[in-house]
Amino acid sequence: MVRTRFAPSPSGFLHIGGVRTALYSWLFARNKGGQFLLRIEDTDVERSTEESIEAILAGMQWLGLDHDEDIVYQSKRFDIYQEKAEGLIQADHAYKCYCTPDELEKMRAEQTKKGENPRYDGRCRDKGDQDGEFVIRFKSNAKEDITISDSVYGQITVHKDELDDFIILRSNKAPTYHFAVVIDDNESGITHILRGDDHLKNSAKHLQLMDAMDYKKPEFIHLPMILGPDGSRLSKRHGAMNILEYKDQGFLPEAMLNYLVRLGWSFGDQEVFNIQEMIDAFDVKNINKSSAKFDLEKLEWLNQQHLSNSDNSELTEFLKLNTSLEELPSAKTIDSFVHAYKPRVNNLNELVGYFNTLYAENFTVEKSAAEKFLKQEILVPFQDLLEMLEQGEWNAESINQSVKSTCEKHGIGFGKIGQPLRVAITGGTESPSIDLTMTLLEREIVISRVKKAIEYISNQ
Ligand code: GLU
């Protein structure tokens, strides 16, 4: 059974790169009918916050990246790490190190002076128990270089000189990342580790620990990092980094996931995927080795695609929850509105915005649009149109006929009346076709808005 995990450190918001890691782990597990676990790596008591944990959980929930089993919190497992560290000392795989920060600093300075790579020289290996503060170090007896088999990067070799006696338990009894991650992945039965390639070399340390602890080795799948469009490391300059900001900006979770799945993975030239398609198509062998570039425009385009493909009912629910209107139009009208507007908007906020304006109890026209389009020359055509709108059926066809007749009567093109009419009815300059838009409102409302426009023009 495949078991993957996402293991964020809760010291900030849920980052876009983290979400991609979570998504790939989730897709991999779901594709294989396996399990996906969530572990909060909150060993750094100073930097971990409750707020950050909540932001991570909210982000995962918004995106629908559901996890199996209970969340593992490393902060609740300090006794276990302590016990394991002592076990390693007993087995002569670890030892207490009493070096002070000053001493370590001096050692590094000397090594650097001699042109050597700074590394812990193992001076406490045989000291045994002493008084004073200590950390526990792993005894790295690497006699050979260590090779990591990675599903994305292939065979990566870490030279044995780079592997020194690293710390596994700090003086305050907190485990280091390396130690906790190895123990927890083993105890959770993780079969495949997907994580950012900044951890690639750490895997050499992890392999050493796994050998010492007689743990079964998982497969490694390291993911290339995400860059900004200019090729530098992705940062705030390139767009929001916090996943929940995208929620606030009106992105759909599935558009976000679709965007992130393609950021470093491909399936032929398919761009648009729904969740099930992502699950079905996901295969580690199609992860790109090179870093992916973040492209906000593509994300926006995908959002548009997913909005057009969304179920009306989902969007209706969203509107109902987010509108500022006190009284809602009928269910049928909302459905027609959603149907007409969803292919035209870039995000959910725009959809809500159009909805609030179109059905506003105290409807107003944008000042600049009124000034530009509600002009004297349209006054008489509007008056004639008003008469026609008061009669006949209330559907797109007959509305269209009325507008056409008005144009013919005054010898003007459709464009001359269409845009002023749009402004008069919707309050702005963007909407679906004007006849369709008018059917989204009741006849009396349209008539009162045309009258209001006539009054406005007359007062100019
Ligand atoms: N807490 C680590 C991080 O956020 C997890 C790395 C891993 O997946 O092993 O980078």
Identify every distinct bound molecule in the structure, by name, code or SMILES: glutamic acid
Shape by Cα distribution: elongated
The residue-averaged pLDDT reads 96
Note the quaternary state here: single chain
In DSSP terms, counting alpha (H) and pi (I) runs of 4 or more, how many helices? Answer: 19
The Cα radius of gyration reads: 31 Å
Helix/strand/pairing class, anyone? Answer: mainly alpha
| Unreliable residue stretches | none
Largest sheet: 3 strands, parallel
Terminal residue distance: 75 Å
Q: How many β-strand stretches?
A: 12
Number of domains: 4
CATH topology of the largest domain: Rossmann fold
CATH 4th-level superfamily of the largest domain: HUPs
| CATH class descriptor of the largest domain | Alpha Beta
CATH architecture group name of the largest domain: 3-Layer(aba) Sandwich
- Beta content: 5-15%
User: How much helix is in the residues?
Assistant: 40-55%
Output the strand order for the largest sheet: 1-2-3
